[in-house]
Amino acid sequence: MKREVTKAIFPVAGLGTRFLPATKSIPKEIMTLVDRPLIQYAIDEAREAGITEFIFVTSRGKGALEDYFDHSPQLESELHKKGKAELLKILKNTNMDSGAIAYIRQYKALGLGHAVWCARRLIGDEPFAVILPDDVISSEKSCLKQMVQAYNDVGGLMVAAMEVPQDKTSSYGILNVAQQQKNLIAINGMIEKPAQGDAPSNLAVIGRYILTPNIFTHIEKQNFGAGGEIQLTDAIANEIDIGHAVNGFLFEGQRFDCGTKAGFLQATISFALAREDLRDELTDYLNKLVSVINVAQ
Ligand code: UTP
């Protein structure tokens, strides 16, 4: 099977417990880096990669996420009346075509693999992307676009990969490497959150995937894996076991783990420093802060 990748699944049904109490009422994906919700970064990345159908796997309490994509004619006309052309442009860039987004429910947070499986009927018989919005990747060319281009050359299944420190491997899905050619890694196994010392490499899977519908057959048969969840990594490992090609792709760009508080804060600072309207003020503040810390030490 080798067809264009035009559909993407965004699993957003997790509980977001690491951001409690905020996530009691705000979906994690709506939290903002500077002034854009995490989900907007994910959508923009997908659009740049040629995705035209966006499938959200949601859950209870994610209403704000659905509302975010509604058009806002009243707000638009107010901005128009007040001559705020720049803001109007920003707002209009977030508009999605009618029918481009589908929402499907995961009734219980049974894991990422299960969340992806919930979207199976909307995928049909074609390859598709999966994007985890809490992995935010800052890059010149969108990470998913880099992957789609590589996929168009080599086919198979593909996972985004990056090097992580050896002592952090137990927090990730880790690749067992068969062969590496530049930024493409042929994989002969994958293990989710290996115990310290058991990791077959220091190459971790990051939240971008290109998969084919055969993955659903594995998820269906799967038992609960690491952390008591139905893991996507296990299903991809099953694909390798039956001889299907799976490649890791070392993307160009910087990844922020916005599922953690430290990662979220680092991303906020980094994205703010990249903005002309904020850079100078923030740099001044950070410099002062650093000198206060240095004096205190
Ligand atoms: P995480 O492991 O970050 O879990 O999920 P979480 O629930 O979002 O956050 P914590 O750990 O409680 O703080 C990675 C991605 O998979 C989705 C999440 O929404 C997130 O985008 N996910 C996870 C689901 O959609 N369903 C699940 O059952 C689990």
Number of discrete helical segments: 11
Beta strand %: 15-25%
End-to-end distance, in Å?
60 Å
CATH architecture: Alpha-Beta Complex
| Ligand list | uridine 5'-triphosphate
Radius of gyration: 20 Å
**Within the largest sheet, what's the order of strands?**
5-4-1-6-11-8-12-10-9
Q: What is the makeup of the main sheet?
A: 9 strands, mixed
What is the string of helix and strand elements?
Answer: EEEHEHHHEHHEEHEEEEHHEEHH
Range of helix content: 25-40%
Characterise the protein shown here.
With 297 residues, the protein is of the alpha/beta class. The protein has a single domain (7-259), classed as Spore Coat Polysaccharide Biosynthesis Protein SpsA, Chain A. The chain is built from eleven helices and 13 strands. A nine-stranded mixed sheet has the order 5-4-1-6-11-8-12-10-9, sandwiched between helices. A two-stranded antiparallel sheet has the order 2-3. Helix 5 (112-118) crosses helix 8 (214-221), helix 5 (112-118) crosses helix 9 and helix 8 (214-221) crosses helix 9 (232-241). The longest helix has 21 residues, at 276-296. The protein is globular, with a radius of gyration of 20 Å. The N and C termini lie far apart (60 Å). The mean pLDDT is 92.
Key features?
two-stranded antiparallel sheet; single chain; 9-stranded mixed beta sheet; Spore Coat Polysaccharide Biosynthesis Protein SpsA, Chain A; globular; 297 residues; binds uridine 5'-triphosphate; alpha/beta; 11 helices
